[in-house]
Amino acid sequence: MNISPSQPVRARAHDGPAPARAAAPPPPPAALPGGLARLRGRLGLRARGRLARRLRGWGFLALLLVLWEIAGRQDTTGLLPPVGDVLKEVGTIVTGDGLTHDVLPSIARALAGFAAGSVVGILLGVALGWWRWLDPWLRPSLEFLRAVPPPALVPLAVVAFGASTPLRIAVIAAGTCWPVLLSTTDGVRRVEPGFVETARVYTPGGSLTVLRRVVVPAALPQIMNGLRIGLAVSLIVMVISEMVASSSGLGFLILQSQRMYAMTPMYAGVLLLALAGWLLTLTFSAVERRALSWFDGMKGRDHD
Fold first, then answer.
1. Consecutive sets of 10 residues in the chain, 304 residues long: mean pLDDT of each?
2. How far apart are the first and last CA of the chain?
3. Which of 180, 205, 236, 294 could pair covalently with 226 via S-S, beta carbons 3.0-4.6 A apart?
4. Which residues lie closer than 8 Å to 98 by C-beta, 6 or more apart?
5. CA atoms within 13 A on the CB side of 155
6. What ranges make up the beta strands (E) of 187-304?
7. Dihedral angle, C-alpha 85, 86, 89, 90, nearest 10 °
8. Residue 298: per-residue pLDDT
9. Which spans in the chain are helix H?
10. Distance CA 292, CA 37 (A)
């Protein structure tokens, strides 16, 4: 049968299946936008920089401990025990009765005094910063009281009221109050006046609502600075208060060891005090980062 050239040629059944086509290669992954790629690179460099700084800090600390160990082994006066002996004494104190007799009571007193002093400092600071007509009435008395060092009050307070834990907490609170008070007052007064006036217009509830919802949060970064200083002051005053007419605490341990010429327990007490302060500072920094996350992101701060 003749097939006309104009007719299409159809594949016959016995000719076999048509050859399969080669699979198309997968499309290349979409490249990140330039801005996002640069951001990821910057974040990676920042993370590596933080890690490098931490490693340098811990390495330098390890070097100091090694130098302490060498100097302690070569000391012949008995005034500088090796760091290994001091760490063993720290372990003995922490795993024995010293934990409940000296370490934990000291930390509890410091935290109680810090909390009481912080509350008083924040309340007075907010009042002085917001209601400025109180300043001429309260400022002279507050400045006079602030000029008295809290450690100088310890012997007088012990003679007048006895050596009790509430008295020591009150002395610690007296030392903690002042940095918190000054930072809070300055933070409230430094809030932008235009910001406050705008809040008065758009915030229902009156002046106290503006103070609670607008002014205090705006002053919170500076308040946190005062709290950080107050935490360090509470530890200092705690040690001093425990060195006068006390029978427990890290201050008592350090003073009694010094009097008995027991250098290893004395250094162990100092090291325990440093560790307690370091842990409290880390805890406070975590709370501060959470409370000021909006401020840190706005300022572009990099916490290590």
1. 48 49 54 57 68 83 91 88 93 91 93 96 94 88 86 80 84 93 93 84 80 89 94 93 86 92 93 94 92 70 48
2. 90
3. 180
4. 92, 253
5. 2
6. none
7. -140
8. 58
9. 34-74, 83-95, 98, 104-130, 135-146, 150-161, 165-189, 193-202, 207-210, 216-242, 250-259, 263-291, 293-299
10. 28
Residue of 177, 172, 178 lying closest to 153 (CA atoms):
172
Helix or strand run (H / E) with residue 65: helix 34-74
**16: Cα within 13 Å, side-chain hemisphere:** 2
Angle at 235 between CA 234 and CA 241, to 5 degrees: 85
Do 227 and 118 contact (CB within 8 A), yes or no? yes
The residue written with tokens 């107050």 in the block is 230
Distance between CA 91 and CA 97 in Å, rounded? 11
Rg (CA), the chain: 33
- Check residue 263 and give its pLDDT: 93
CA 184 from chain centre, in angstroms, equals 18
Q: Which residues contact 7 (CB under 8 A, 6 or more apart)?
A: none
Cα 218-219-220 angle, rounded to 5 deg: 95
CA dist 47 and 229 (Å) reads 28
d(CA 121, CA 173): 9
Give the number of other CB atoms < 10 A from CB of residue 93.
21
Residues ≥6 apart with Cβ < 8 Å to 252? 102, 242, 243, 246
- According to the model, what pLDDT value does residue 39 have? 58
User: Do 164 and 109 meet the contact criterion of CB atoms below 8 Å apart?
Assistant: no
Give residue 25's pLDDT: 57
pLDDT of residue 154: 82
Residue 253 identity: L
Task: Tell me the one-letter amino acid at 298.
Answer: M
